[in-house]
Design brief:
The complex is a heterodimer of chains A (241) and B (464). With 241 residues, chain A is of the alpha/beta class. In chain A, the strands form two sheets. Chain A has a four-stranded parallel sheet with strand order 2-1-3-4, sandwiched between helices. Chain B folds into two domains: 266 residues, NagB/RpiA/CoA transferase-like (Rossmann fold, 3-Layer(aba) Sandwich), CATH 3.40.50; 72 residues, no CATH class. Classes of the chains: A alpha/beta (241), B alpha/beta (464). Chains A and B meet through helix 1, helix 2, helix 3, helix 4 and helix 8 of A and helix 1, helix 17, helix 18, helix 19 and helix 20 of B.
């Protein structure tokens, strides 16, 4: 299976190690991983802001870059959700593009969903030990049905213990530019999530999206919690002690 | 602006935050239990069917409304049409003058809030008394509703005790049951002395020209049967074809709103008192109000008119649960309000509301008629961009970002610089406490720093 890795702009800029972790997982599942070189961003920031033209330009570019791959996988619910559920909206009514867009959407997956349902990875290669709790990012959960998949993969780590937190499905408050436009509400929402995660006694708050990750790590550290780690599920699954 | 100026106050209001945390997602949890008891697959099927019933009405809204008018008129109802709020107020005033009405008891009507009906009545010598307990409480407090089903949800028991002492002039009570009994006692006097009853209508049934009322307190029944004249006022989008459709939608309404299988009272009212009826008004009016609803018809936002006013969206909205309903600034709070207020009051007047959401999708999942609320909010954001209503700095930022992101080499350079600059800003501790254009972020959070080299750089290095 030739998988095109959609690294995502935030992983590229902020946490490259997650990109490498994703490659390791895909290769462990027997995939050949390609990283289309010119990729930049899926266009979601413009899409959410109502700047359709900006989003459209980036969507055309991404479709062209990735359509030759057998699969497109992103370590992000929001980016894969953008391609899978929103790209068709961007190109609606344009027959020439729609065929290509629908084809791409059909083979685009969030990382854990791909690993479990398509690649059927049996065991995560990492050796993480400790208690974790999982935050369900909104796009992954509600647009793509990502819920059981990360948990199934975490369960294959013999020394990792998953404890569910209260309101694991409630939005963390990131919401893209919402986190800056309504920073006060965003922080208050992040606060609830942080308290709930801390209440589980987890060593790490694990999630599948960078926006949530930066938001929650940012709030934890600001409120004096330097102990609770905030980790992408790909990092935990490829953990090397 | 409706939202932005009110948020700070809402977050800083300790009493409000206490109430919000005590009732956090309360109705959502109840709905989840009702859905589980009903059968989750069956519930989802019901949502699909309900959406179809509503779409069927909207596809030929004019025809169904005319059918409703014909059937209602046949049965003695006087059907009136109000294009806007001013006309709605004028029609109600004319009815008061025609029948020499002096006191109105009201069962909840959000459209009457839209139209400012109470203020108009008071200004014209007609005393309006809200009889829905929550509406009564906020009427005493002089406040607008903060939730469409539980309008006084932001009020603590202590605040209600204080209000009752202030207005009823009786000894202060503290028990819920005692407070309710006192309200019932006071309201009974109003029920018996009013000559006008004003209600909303949860649904208008075209088949029989009936209105349907969903209440928990019995006030709907009293308001629509005891006074000489009953006026039901509601939006044109409420019409549904048949009684069968009413039954289907009713299975979903209470479960979605409060988790009840059915409300305590379910009234289907068809015409005024008939020969041989032991009670009922002499005159029954239904006022059909447009006031912006036709702006949705035939557009890519028509689904908003499916709304059956259950409140599930705000019950599931994490932003609403954090700031409460008053922060939304008008009659309708939460996700539905963020769509309705801009369209009904002018997109340019409510630029902040479509952005008062993280697009988490919880509202869409909960909506009994599957209104794609996040998509509608995004479409309003698009309209703002199309009409050039966004700040020029924001437009420029997206233009620049879009340009750079379409040119990989340029993007790679910018990202490499960005990754290093942010890392330097983070200092020895590796955290950024202040960001020049993003104080909204850094006021409440630190900004984690990048690794220093982008993925692209590191990948290229590893390939060599």
């Amino acid at each position: 299976m030739k998988v095109g890795l959609l690294v995502t702009c935030l992983v590229d800029l902020m946490r490259p190690r997650i990109g490498f972790a994703a490659i390791e997982l895909l290769e462990a599942a027997g995939c050949e991983v390609a990283v289309p070189a010119g990729q930049t961003c899926c266009g979601q920031p413009g899409w959410n802001a109502g700047d359709r033209a900006a989003a459209r330009g980036l969507a055309e570019k991404l479709v062209t870059e990735f359509e030759a791959c057998d699969y497109v996988v992103a370590p992000s619910g929001s980016c894969s959700g953008m391609v899978k559920t929103h790209y068709p909206e961007l190109f609606r009514g344009e027959a020439a593009w729609m065929a290509r867009v629908d084809a791409l959407a059909a083979k685009t997956h969030e990382l854990t969903d791909f690993l479990v349902r398509v690649a059927k990875l049996e065991r995560a290669p990492g050796d993480f030990a400790g208690k974790v709790t999982y935050h369900d990012s909104c796009s992954g959960l509600r647009e793509l049905g990502v819920k059981a998949q990360p948990r199934a993969l975490l369960a294959t780590l013999p020394e990792a213990e998953l404890v569910e937190m209260k309101e694991c499905e409630t939005c963390c408050g990131f919401g893209g530019t919402f986190s800056v436009k309504h920073g006060d509400i965003s922080s208050a929402m992040a606060d609830v999530k942080c308290r709930n995660a801390q209440a589980t006694g987890a060593d790490a708050l694990v999630l599948g999206d960078l926006g949530c990750m930066l938001n929650l790590e940012g709030r934890l550290r600001k409120t004096g919690d330097d102990r609770t780690r905030v980790l992408h599920v790909a990092e935990v699954l490829t953990w090397k002690r | 602006m409706f939202f932005k100026p009110r948020v700070g106050g809402a977050l800083a209001d300790a009493k409000l935050q206490d109430v919000l945390s005590r009732f956090r997602f309360g109705f959502a949890d109840k709905r989840a239990a009702a859905r589980a008891a009903f059968g989750e697959d069956e519930f989802e099927t019901l949502r699909v069917v309900a959406s179809q019933i509503r779409d069927r009405s909207l596809a030929q809204l004019d025809a169904w409304l005319l059918r409703f008018e014909a059937e209602a008129t046949k049965r003695g109802t006087k059907v009136l049409w109000a294009e806007d709020h001013a006309e709605a107020r004028r029609l109600v005033l004319e009815i008061c003058e025609r029948h020499d009405l002096k006191k109105a008891i009201k069962s909840k009507s959000m459209v009457s809030e839209e139209a400012g009906l109470n203020a108009m009545l008071e200004a014209n010598g007609v005393v309006p008394i809200e009889t829905d307990l929550g509406e009564y409480i906020i009427q005493l407090a002089g406040e607008p509703p903060s939730h469409i089903i539980a309008p006084a949800i932001h009020k603590s028991k202590e605040e209600v005790s204080d209000l009752f002492v202030q207005h009823h002039k009786r000894p202060r009570l503290t028990e819920h049951a005692a407070l309710t009994r006192e309200a019932r006692d006071v309201l009974r006097g109003h029920f018996l002395s009013a000559d006008l009853g004003i209600s909303g209508a949860n649904f208008l049934v075209a088949e029989t020209g009936s209105i349907a009322l969903v209440t928990n307190e019995g006030n709907g029944r009293m308001v629509t049967t005891m006074p000489r004249v009953h006026v039901a006022i509601t939006g044109i989008e409420k019409v549904i074809p048949t009684l069968e459709d009413l039954s289907t939608l009713n299975r979903l309404l209470a479960r979605s709103a409060t988790g009840q299988e059915i409300s305590n009272y379910f009234s289907v009212i068809t015409g005024p008192r008939r020969e041989g009826d032991i009670d009922g008004p002499e005159h029954h009016y239904v006022i059909l109000v447009d006031a912006g609803r036709t702006k949705f018809l035939g557009t890519d936002m028509q689904e908003m008119l499916r709304c059956i006013r259950c409140g599930a969206c705000m019950n599931h909205c994490p932003v609403y649960q954090t700031v409460g309903g008053h922060a939304y600034g008008w009659v309708y709070p939460g996700p539905m309000g963020s769509v309705l207020t801009p369209v009904y009051t002018g997109i340019e007047n409510a630029l902040d509301l479509p952005h008062a959401a993280t697009m988490c999708g919880a509202c869409h999942v909960a909506c009994p008629v599957r209104i794609p609320l996040p998509d509608l909010l995004r479409k309003l954001r698009e309209k703002q961009v199309e009409k050039n209503l966004r700040p020029w700095t924001e437009r420029l930022a997206f233009r620049v970002w879009g340009f750079v992101a379409r040119h990989p080499w340029l993007y790679a350079q910018a990202a490499m610089v960005g990754a290093r600059v942010l890392k330097i800003l983070g200092g020895a501790e590796g955290r950024i406490t202040k960001l020049p254009f993003a104080s909204g972020w850094t006021d409440g959070r630190i900004m984690p720093v990048p690794e220093g080299k982008t993925f692209r750089e590191q990948y290229a290095e590893r390939q060599r």
